[in-house]
Design brief:
alpha/beta, Rossmann fold, 2 domains, six-stranded mixed sheet, four-stranded antiparallel sheet, 9 helices, binds adenosine-5'-triphosphate, ATP hydrolysis activity, ATP binding, ABC transporter ATP-binding protein
Amino acid sequence: MAARRRCSPTGRCWRPILAPDLIRFEDVSAGYGALTILDHLSATVRAGEITLLIGPNGAGKSTVLKTFFGLVKPSAGRILFQDEEVGGLSPAALLRRGIAFVPQGRNLFPSLSVAHNLELGAVTLPRALRAERCAEALARFPGFAERIRNQASTLSGGEQKQLEIARALLLRPEVLLIDEPSIGLSPIVSRDVFRLLRSLADAGTTVLMVEQNVRSALAIADRVLLLEGGRVVLDSPAAALLDDPDLNRVFLGRAVGAG
Ligand SMILES: Nc1ncnc2c1ncn2[C@@H]1O[C@H](COP(=O)(O)OP(=O)(O)OP(=O)(O)O)[C@@H](O)[C@H]1O
C-alpha cells in the first residue's frame, strides 16, 4: 500500500516513499501487578504517520501508550525507538528522547492561567528557550493569545484539549502519544482536534493515538492496529478499513480476516 498523498500549500502533490518504522514492540508483555494485559504484543509504528489503536474495552490500548511512555514496565519483550531499546525507561528519559504523552481526560490545572499551564510544559527546557517555545505554541493556536491570563477552566473542552496538545508540543516531540482526544468533545470540536493531529503528522510528527470515535479517527489516520486480548490481531491501512463494509464488526472487536 502506497503512503498517503501529500499536498503543499501551493498545490503541488506527491506520494512519499513508504515511511520507515520508528517504533517497534517485539513480543511485549506488560500489566498491573499480577494482571497481564499486553500478551506478547508485536506492532510497528511508522515515522510521520498517524497510527490508530482500536479494539474493545479492556483490550489494552491505553496500556500500550502507558508502556511505551514508561508508566507501565514491560515484563517481557523489547520496545525499540529509532532502533534503540527504550522499554522500561522513565517518562522523563523518554521526554528527552522526543516522546510526549497527552493522557485521557482533563490534564490541566483549572485554577491556573492558560499561560501558566502552558509554561509547565517547558520546565524541562533550558531557560533561554522557554519563552520562544511558548510563543511558538501560541502562534499555532491563535485563539489562546488574548486569553493567556484567563483561568484554564474558562476554556471550552476542545480548547482545553488543544492547550494540552500545545503544552506537549513545546518540546517539539518526534512522537506524540494521545489517548482518546475526542472524549467529551462535540463532533465539530473533535474534528478540529483531529485536523490538528493530521497537520502535525503532515509536518513530520509521528502520532500514536487511542480513540473510541473510530470512524472519524480512521479518516485522518494512516494505519490502524486492532487490539484484542492484549495482542494486535489486525494491522491495516486506515483507508482500507474505512472502505470495509464489515467495519461495524471491527467496532465490536471481531477482526475481519484476522486469525
Ligand atoms: N492501574 C491499573 N491497575 C489495574 N488494572 C488496570 C489499571 N489500568 C488498567 N487496568 C486494567 O487493564 C485492562 C486494560 O486497560 P486499558 O485501559 O489498557 O484498556 P483499553 O483497551 O484502553 O480500554 P478502554 O477502551 O475501556 O479505555 C482493563 O481491564 C483495565 O481494567
